[in-house]
Design brief:
The complex is a heterodimer.
Chain A (H helix, E strand, L loop, with lengths): L1 H19 L9 H12 L4 H9 L2 H4 L10 E3 L6 E3 L23 H16 L1 H7 L10 H11 L7 H10 L7 H12 L7
Antiparallel strand pairs in A: 1-2
Chain B lengths: L1 H18 L7 E7 L29 E4 L8 E3 L2 E4 L2 E4 L5 E3 L5 E3 L1 H4 L2 E4 L2 E2 L5 H9 L8 H8 L7 E5 L20 E4 L5 H6 L14 H17 L7 H40 L19 E3 L8 H5 L3 E2 L2 E3 L12 E2 L2 H13 L5 E5 L3 E2 L2 E2 L2 E3 L3 E3 L6 E5 L9 E2 L13 H28 L6 E7 L2 E4 L6 E4 L5 E5 L6 E3 L1 E6 L15 E4 L4 E4 H12 L12 E4 L2 E4 L6 E5 L5
Parallel strand pairs in B: 1-16, 1-23, 8-27, 9-30, 10-11, 10-16, 28-33
Antiparallel strand pairs in B: 2-3, 4-5, 6-7, 8-26, 12-21, 13-14, 14-19, 15-17, 18-22, 20-21, 23-26, 24-25, 28-29, 29-30, 31-32
Helix pairs in contact in B: 7-9, 7-10, 9-10
Classes of the chains: A mainly alpha, B alpha+beta.
Chain lengths: 193, 574
């Protein structure tokens, strides 16, 4: 009887526990995230990336190392700036205590969304992302080339090509590429190392 | 087997708790009095009843007694103001600025206030004790983190970290079980509202927001990518909260922004009128003369140290020698206090968050016209009368409005600046809190909000008037909420002590924690944290400590005896 009761409790507990188990990805830190975007959108993306990602250590994770930070004078502004961005402690010592990897969250998603939109709206960044050609033909080869900027180890599938083939008629103001890049940029998987 | 069954039951219990998440926590505002200012002129009730044991200390004062011609004979008193039978510090009998040039009685705040005193923090130190205000178990979950985990508000927690930034204080101790991420707003941010909504709001930079083709394209395309990468998850929650905020914002961005600016102006006016040109009865209603040099020291004073004579005028590394000491506060400010209260009011009223930590900056921008560096004064060692004179007359410090401030960590702050500084700080805070609570009442949120005002610990005063040390064996937490419906003071203190945990023996009644009958020991911060968690409807971040308060029939009720002052403490002494 006691054994049966214990088994009953185990079964109930397992069933209830199943509802509690939650799988949450750990996202790349501010340095990882910004380095991916910097690589895709080029040097003119720097200001936006810095403002929206690098200066948000608590939201994106990525502690700085105050011991290794080096300062130098910015030739343009004359202000002291961190020479090595990977050790950036912009908000002081507290930045060295943030997490390495963080859970996602609405605030992070909101900032990524803003960053993506701002970068795609900027002609220079858009041109860089499209390999230097704002009028890039939207054929499968080019689609895959852009796709691989976000997901270098993956190739697009047939169903994806079919979907985008139907959308190629959206030519106005290069919107096809803007939509395509925005979809890739908003997808979260490239942010997970 | 017992352990096995208990672990199963604990799993079941956790699940039940999780299923209870439908209940929204109460709003929680921690007003963090960082660096532990002296609370005896503020909200530390040291003699709750007329017959409470009370041993005076020269520094434990709430007002000037009389202001004599000789500034060295300045005298003070510990005066109180009775509210519902409880003796509050005398400032509670005064008024503070209200909106549109009005005056409010500070006593009105007492009706919804419960003061917990006599909590032994167990260990000294600003950093660890300030962080414990939020996370009572060091590096454990924080109260705000618990609220964030159970909250459905779009912003898990707002940390108004002030000049201290996100480092070594209650703001940086935020920790949530579910990994919720707070928004930290420090002193470098100009517009708190714009900064707060920044992640959720963007201008239509691409020029096609709301375009149906774009929506369909991007959504489907993103889904395809996710499906292809086999990491299909759901963005529904984000989309919902973003949509909610965007709806709110699109509908009334200008209104909210304008509201915020109006709130900033309102609180700026309150703070400024609270600090400058004040007439607090017994404190700043008469000129407070500083001293003039040279000073002759009576022969019966055997001291050879300037501090022993001028200690009450000491403010950090200077002695204040103004003609009227009140004038140094005529330019004073509490940086960003107005912005902090404005964003707190806006956020609670618009359901943006359930939890806010507000680090209070010190009073700064003091205008010294005539003060003397401590190192520039000397006490002559010659025959009587001995004189205090300037070593170098060219080094009088004057006409400077700079980062001179009322140092809350008042080790080297004498009786006069402590009395005036803490009184002004409390006047500004009570003015903001009265307005804040009025707004919560009008919005029907006061019963659903808990304001918690606390510093790391109380202070142990010197007897020579020259400053106070960390009183870590005493701590005061003041709770304000609509569910508190009469003034309450709980927690016992010693009236005097000669224990080995004292900084100074026999320093009188300053707030040193004493045992409480129901616990069989002195309160510790875990008791306060558990009480706050229970009021907020979230699990305690330190669940092994008993709550000392309970909400019954919508009212807050103490679970321990009324506050008592016990006799001389000799704990640990042979």
């Amino acid at each position: 009887m006691k054994i049966a009761f214990t088994l009953f409790l185990i079964l109930i507990s397992m069933r209830l526990a199943a509802f509690q188990v939650k799988k949450e990805p750990r996202y790349g830190d501010r340095f990882f995230t910004s380095s991916v975007l910097r690589g895709i959108f080029g040097p003119s993306a720097e200001k936006t990336i810095r403002e929206k990602i690098i200066l948000k250590p608590r939201i994106f994770g990525g502690p700085c190392s105050s011991m290794e930070e080096l300062y130098t004078k910015d030739p343009e502004t004359g202000l002291e700036v961190s020479r090595e961005r990977n050790f950036e402690c912009h908000y002081g010592r507290g930045d060295s205590k943030v997490k390495m990897l963080v859970e996602g969250g609405d605030i992070r998603k909101g900032l990524i969304s803003k960053t993506c939109e701002t970068l795609i709206a900027d002609k220079k960044s858009l041109k860089y992302a499209l390999g230097g050609n704002l009028y890039l033909d939207s054929n499968n080869k080019n689609l895959n080339m852009i796709f691989k900027k976000f997901y270098p180890l993956t190739t697009m599938t047939k169903s994806m090509y079919e979907f985008y083939a139907k959308k190629r008629k959206i030519k106005k103001e290069g919107r096809f590429w803007k939509y395509f890049l925005l979809s890739l940029c908003l997808s979260e998987e490239w942010q997970i190392p | 087997m017992d352990m096995f069954v208990s672990s199963i039951l604990s799993g079941v219990f956790n699940t039940i708790q999780a299923s209870e998440r439908g209940v929204q926590p109460r709003n929680y505002l921690l007003v963090n009095l960082i660096d532990a200012p002296a609370r005896w002129p503020m909200d530390l009730v040291l003699r709750p009843k007329d017959d409470s044991l009370f041993v005076p200390n020269p520094m434990i004062v709430t007002r000037f007694n009389e202001i004599p011609k000789n500034p060295l004979e300045m005298s003070f008193e510990y005066a109180t103001h009775k509210i519902s039978g409880i003796n509050f510090p005398s400032i509670w009998g005064t008024t503070t600025p209200g909106p549109r040039g009005s005056e409010r009685k500070i006593a009105d705040l007492a009706q919804n206030t419960c003061i917990i005193r006599g909590c032994n923090m167990g260990i000294d130190g600003h950093v660890r004790n300030n962080m414990r205000l939020a996370a009572p178990n060091q590096d454990g979950l924080s109260i705000g983190g618990q609220v964030a985990d159970f909250s459905s508000r779009p912003i898990p927690t707002i940390l108004l970290s002030g000049e201290m930034g996100f480092d070594n204080n209650a703001a940086s101790a935020f920790k949530s079980k579910l990994g919720k991420i707070p928004i930290d707003i420090d002193d470098r941010v100009d517009d708190y509202f714009k900064f707060l909504i920044d992640p959720f709001y963007s201008k239509n930079v691409l020029g096609f927001r709301g375009n149906a083709v774009r929506k369909e394209f991007v959504q489907k395309s993103t889904d395809l990518i996710r499906f292809h990468l086999k990491r299909a998850g759901s963005d529904r929650k984000f989309q919902t909260s973003r949509k909610n905020i965007e709806r709110l914002i699109e509908k009334s961005l200008e209104t909210l922004d304008r509201d915020y600016q109006i709130l900033v102006n309102k609180y700026s006016d309150l703070v400024s009128r609270s600090l400058r040109n004040t007439r607090i009865p017994g404190v700043t209603d008469r000129a407070i003369p500083g001293f003039e040099l040279p000073i002759s020291v009576k022969k019966e004073r055997l001291t050879r140290v300037v501090e022993d004579v001028l200690g009450m005028y000491k403010n950090e590394s200077e002695f204040l020698g103004e003609k009227d000491l009140r004038t140094i506060y005529d330019t004073s400010e509490i940086i960003n206090l107005a912005n902090q209260f404005a964003i707190a009011e806006l956020s609670f009223k618009n359901n943006l968050t359930n939890s806010i930590v507000l680090n209070v900056n010190p009073i700064t921008h003091l205008n010294y016209q005539r003060s003397y560096a401590v190192s520039n004064l000397e006490l002559s060692d010659g025959p009587n009368p001995r004189m205090i004179t300037l070593k170098n007359p060219n080094k009088i410090l004057k006409s400077r409005i700079r980062d001179n401030h009322y140092e809350p960590d008042a080790h080297r702050t004498g009786t006069i600046p402590t009395l005036v500084g803490s009184s002004l700080l409390f006047r500004a805070l009570s003015s903001c809190l009265l307005e804040f609570t009025d707004q919560l009442k009008a919005a029907g949120l006061f019963n659903e909000t808990l304001i918690h005002m606390a510093g790391e610990f109380d202070r142990e005063p010197r007897k020579d008037h020259s400053g106070s040390e960390h009183g870590w064996t005493g701590h005061t937490s003041t709770l304000i909420s609509g569910i508190i419906q009469k003034p309450q003071v709980i927690g016992n203190i010693y009236s005097d002590s000669i224990s080995n945990t004292d900084f100074f023996k026999n320093s009188g009644t300053w707030g040193k924690g004493a045992p409480v009958a129901e616990l069989g020991r002195t309160l510790n911060y875990g008791n306060i944290a558990s009480s706050i968690a229970s009021i907020l409807r979230v699990p305690s971040p330190i669940s092994n400590e008993k709550s000392i308060l309970a909400v019954k029939s919508g009212r807050l009720r103490p679970l321990i005896e009324e506050a008592k002052n016990l006799g001389l403490n000799k704990e640990g002494m042979k």
